[in-house]
Amino acid sequence: MQVMNQLFLFGTLSLLISTGVVSLRAQAIYDNGPPDQQGGWEMTHWLEADDFTLGETTRLEGIKFWDAEINGFFEGTIVWQIYSDTGDNGPGTMLASGTSTNLNHAATGLSIFGAFKEFVTTFDIAPVSLPAGTYWLALHNGPLSNTETQNMFWGTTANLGGSPSYAKIAPFQGPWTSNAFAGSRPDLAFQINGAVAPRVTAFTTSNGGASRLRFTTTAGRNYCVEYKNDLLDSPWTPIEGAESIPGTGSEIEVPDPDPNVATRPSRFYRVKLL
């Protein structure tokens, strides 16, 4: 018998690109929709997951989601997991996981069906860089060892998009179960915060051999342009004057001031998001 998830109804020069590590900044790079105050899916005895899509290489840095709960049932931490997509509308292989840091859990002031209060939670995650594609975010109230049925429900959204949410019952070793069935509200309210990776759009050299690198930026972010003359060299060396470049939201061009660059057999560059 299938166990039903608890539903609360309501050239010589080569180029490389890499990203660095930073703490959370409140910049949504994916939004699955706001809460509709109409339902939720239990997230303590169950591990709840919903899909999200990235249009280009992106670094995930934090999560924001809404829940409905009775006071005292929030465990104080959230376990998060990122999965690949199976290709047939379900979570696949786990790619990253961790426990929330810098967590903020605040009441919105809304009450749902009397005793249930709506909360919004934001927290940092260990940064995860992913190429364009579809993935799944899974959340659990407290450590995975906490598997008692409790009154905390990941809130639903009316913004139906992608695939319906899925769930896995404790001890979270079995198959995923779809939350889509007659009368259910299967999509979950959440945002993912992070930054789009810089993308090199042009690389030019002058007659004298000087090189210039152009790349995309995001306002409010800083970037570092680094080089190696051989990929076996360690470590990467920042280009003089390009140790920390403020992003503008537009493309930025950075010259390599090394006067001897034209005489070198090769030089490799990377743009790092700080």
Report what the structure shows.
By secondary structure, this protein is mostly beta strands. It folds into two domains: 23-195, no CATH class; 198-273, Immunoglobulin-like, CATH 2.60.40. Helices cover 0% and strands 50% of the residues. It contains no helices and 23 strands. The protein has strands at residues 7-8, 13-15, 18-19, 28-31, 40-42, 46-54, 58-69, 78-85, 91-99, 101-112, 116-130, 133-141, 152-155, 166-169, 177-178, 190-196, 200-205, 211-215, 222-228, 237-238, 245-246, 252-255, 267-273. Strands 1, 4, 5, 7, 10, 11, 13 and 16 form an eight-stranded antiparallel sheet that branches. Strand 19 (222-228) and strand 20 form a beta hairpin. It is elongated and about 75 Å long.
